[in-house]
Design brief:
alpha+beta, Arc Repressor Mutant, subunit A, elongated, two-stranded antiparallel sheet, 5 helices, binds zinc ion
């Protein structure tokens, strides 16, 4: 996975995916790294924890700590704002992605539209 691709695109995918799981149930860091690994994303703690903190700071996730097997574990759950953000993201993602994946006829190019107007 190239650094550039991660920086340019995958960061957004990973954020969206974390939010998706946090809407369904409380999630914690190690679990999310395994889940993302299952999807082919090798995301380390140095990438994932800042993402969790950003989402928390933005008000999309809320965190609470629990002690599991004698260890303190921080769980993250989507807030109502987080759920709304995910819904809006899904709509916007679908709109852009359906054309890229050729599930939808391409829209006329901007250039062609301009020419037609002449
Ligand atoms: Zn998943």
């Amino acid at each position: 996975m190239s650094e550039l691709l991660v920086k340019m695109f995958f960061g957004g995918f990973v954020r969206m995916h974390v939010l998706y799981h946090a809407v369904k149930e409380p999630v914690f860091g190690v679990e999310m790294m395994e889940e993302l690994g299952r999807h082919g994303y090798e995301v380390g703690p140095g990438t994932l924890y800042p993402i969790l903190h950003q989402l928390e700071e933005a008000g999309y996730l809320s965190a609470h700590a629990e002690v599991v097997d004698g260890k303190r574990r921080k769980y993250y759950r989507a807030t109502p704002e987080g759920e709304k953000a995910l819904e809006e993201t899904k709509v916007r993602l679908r709109e852009l992605v359906k054309e890229v994946l050729h599930d939808d006829p391409p829209t006329p190019s901007i250039r062609r539209t301009e020419r037609d107007r002449d």
